[in-house]
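Q: Predict the assembly, please.
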Amino acid sequence: MTEAAILARSVHKTYGALTFERRLRRIVSGGSPRAQVHALRGVSFDVPRGEVLGLVGSNGAGKSTLLRLIAGVSKPTNGSIAVHGNVHAVLEIATGLLLDRTGRENIHYMGGLYGATAEELREREPAIVEFAGLGAFIDHPVRAYSSGMRSRLAFSIVTSGEFDVLLIDEALSVGDVGFALRCRQRIRELCRRGATVVLVSHALESIREMCDRVIWLHEGRIGGDGDPDEVVEAYRAVAHEQAQREYARRFALLAKTSRHGSGVDIRRLVGTTAPGAAATHLFRLDEPFVIEASVSSRVMFDRVRAELELLRGDGVLVFRDEQTVSLAEGETALVISLGSMRLGRFTYRARLSLTAPDGAPLALGETAFAVEDHVHAYNSAYYQEVEWSLSA
Amino acid sequence: MVAVGLGAPPRRLARLLRIQLRQELQLRYVGSVAGVYWSVINPLVQVLIYVVLVTFILKARISATSGGKFDYAIFVLAGMSPWLAIQDGLNNSASSLVRHASIVKNVVFPLELLPVTAVVASIAPLLVSLITLGCLLGGSGRSVGASLVTLPLLVVVQLLLTLGFGLFLAIVTAFLRDLQFILPVAFQVVLLFTPILYLAKDVPHPIAQIMRVNPLTYVVEGYREVFYSQGWPSPLGLAYATLFGLLLVGLGLVVFRRLKGYAEALV
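A: Predicted assembly structure:
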């Protein structure tokens, strides 16, 4: 049967963004214009039965709001959302667990809230306990649980019942590796049974691996909908660009150049992916990595020692290389090609210092850049093929 | 399961109510030594102070008391019992949505059940008050008459009124947290306009008129008839209070449902 389990038609959701005081004033005075946050601005899609749908997007894109609407916990401001069948949802970590009760008591309480009878729960209890894998903790109050344990319990309870649609918000990313694996297995089992699953996660790799389809929410609208690989890639590209802009703003403050009254001046120092290209503040792994400088000098300078250092954000020197260069009168462009980006996810400073043959400091320049989150990381920055080139 | 409004099967609603009620009572009373007594000990001490003040210091006589040792104490406690339970129910329904934020935010749940649970749970303090009252009656050698059979009816009317106000308080508190601070003051004012510490006919005219409109008056007077005067509650008064309660619950449900979709973002 390939009917739609979830039907969303131009769903809008706005939240009143009034502070308490303004809300009160509005009630008293009877109507100042209402400040609103548009969480969703017209979202439409169908989810066929048995599909695993992933929702991705940056913080505040409307993913959780959409999940709440599907769950029926909140109502759309405009448009409609229809769900066929029972919905079970893990919307927040440790959804509705009673802290003072034991894990076992919570199985009965939460299970009851989700509509199971006492009998059914007695029957299901051993399986839930086993899946949660909390050992003796199951008879301890939930208050004593770590957040990972709480989410394991909540996930076990919520996925144990009879339902047609399962909604999971970031719950997979809290458990440990072993539990995450079991969660995936459980979700696959559920799908075979015909359940529809909607996952929200920032763990793009697991989304890509688990989902049949991905919807990317971008500022309350659908930015992409379809094949997981394509949509995740499209989202990544935009997210990268956004992060790039953000880093550029942040790093603008860190960049500095200093002269030592020597007549030599590092006018520009940037990290980039190709000589002459725009400055890059956020590198991807394996991207070409080039440091570009423009040095001006009042006189011709021979045998200047140029030293490049890469310092990690915490001050650790991760790379150092030097070269003797000669500066022409006027502008000299200095390009240092470092091959491909091999640095781990962190922020870095690149420092270029120029020293006269007699050891007197001539000029110093610094720029900052970051390397994006990536799955496989090289353990160290090890550049063998550094290439310095000069052009007047 | 998607839309478990009050349109859900009654058996399901009853089950959810039972689960919530058990949870609410356990939460409030298990784990503290005197349990449910705490919700009445403070008010009982207050009753004691009124009794000492009126009978021993002011040496005043309520026109209805005949001068027995515990007369005024029984008189006050008979009227105070439903009032204490009503206060308890209103306090807890006012905070019900906020207290159960995790349910409001995460579980598809008929939210109306939260204030309903709070109101039904107010039977616990009522029982404690009535047991105390029973001891006092036994100690003074008084007895109750056949009108005791009307007690269940009185309780039902009382719960209906509590729920009517409770629904409003529950949903409004989600939007306006100030209400929890206004409530204790409001209770004091209502106490003034309800014949609990004195008889309606003993108070000045304007206050007495407000008392006649106040539906709580008939519940309180009903309790007093049963436990103090051994007479029968006024049928007309109870009919008025019932009607008032039904209207209030109906209106409360309408308002509650209109606003509950927004509560999720506020609690």
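The CA atoms of residues 177 and 334 of chain A lie 47 Å apart. Chain A has two domains: 4-242, 254-391.
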